[in-house]
Amino acid sequence: MARVSVEIENHIARVTLTRGDKMNALDNDMVEAIVAAGEGLKGNNDVRVVVLSGEGPAFCAGLDVANFGKFAGADPVELVMPRSHGAANLFQQVCMVWTQLEVPVIAALHGVAFGGGLQLALGADIRIAHPETRLSVMEMKWGLVPDMGGMVILPKLMRSDVLRQLIYTADQVGAEAAQGMGLVTELSADPLARAMELAGQMALKSPSAMRAAKRLIAVSESGADEATVLHEESREQAALIGKPHQMEAIMANMQKRVPNFK
Asked: Which pTM value belongs to this model?
């Protein structure tokens, strides 16, 4: 069965988890399909924004417990230590592939985002959640640690003591509390509709400026020194000034019309 669908329209790629009958739980096929969907969008110049969502009652309930039996019979070192995607293994790439896309990614969350499902959402630039969504860094419940890329993102979003409490307890938190912690960007009664609204706004901005902004933010969050960040600000700006996308943005604003970026 298909696990993920990808539809591209008006420069927006809608990536949908389609295992709704299983709350989009992550079995091996789902993991591979999510990574393949993200990898397949790399370098696609027609795509300006990605919206990530899940069918059925939940965004993603985390690891499919049926997989524990498969893992029990495997060599854990061989299972998780090989680096199949640069610095990441296959499971970590579920989160990291979205950070590697050149364009903004918006995740629309509903139902639950547990364990690996939460880490998948963390790969997005922005997370819109229904107020009744529940989130959890759930790995400790199963005697494990977060290991799907979340530990790259979580320390950038949260205070250390709050992050430690979530990891150590595996407690579930509501969307409003998660927003206060930095896990959720915005609450919406219809997170997918709101995500699409934001995506529509972003798709009308200069594609080259949007990609430059994502690169620049990544540098600034990487721990680079002040001189490096200032240099990258100037380098990215120099590459934009006077170029066709910037000139079209200026003309569209002056003429009060929708821009037409080619």
From this structure: 0.95
Cα separation, 42 vs 176, in Å, equals 33
123 alpha-carbon distance from chain centroid: 3
The model's pLDDT over 217-249, given as tens digits with 9 standing for 90+, comes to: 999 999 999 999 999 999 999 999 999 999 999
Sign of CA dihedral 146, 88, 105, 25: negative
Cα–Cα dist 207/213, whole Å: 10
Distance between CA atoms of 230 and 11, rounded to whole angstroms? 31
Four-way CATH pick for 206-255: 2.40.50, 1.10.12, 2.60.40, 1.10.3470: 1.10.12
CA 86 to chain centre: 18
For 125, 136, 140, 154, the CA distances from 25, given in Å and listed in that order, are 22, 14, 17, 21
Please report, for the chain, the start and end positions of each structural domain, with discontinuous segments joined by +: 4-202, 206-255
What would the pLDDT profile of 69-94 be if each residue is shown by its tens digit? 666 678 889 889 999 999 999 999 99
- Distance, CA of 237 to chain centre: 25
Q: Which helix (H) or strand (E) holds 15?
A: strand 12-17
CB-CB contact of 185 with 126 (8 Å): yes
The two three-digit tokens of residue 95, written as one number: 């989160």
In Å, what is the CA distance from 85 to each residue of 81, 88, 90, 197? 12, 5, 7, 32
Place domain 4-202 in its CATH homologous superfamily. Answer: 2-enoyl-CoA Hydratase; Chain A, domain 1 (3.90.226.10)
> Which residues pair with residue 144 across a beta bridge?
none
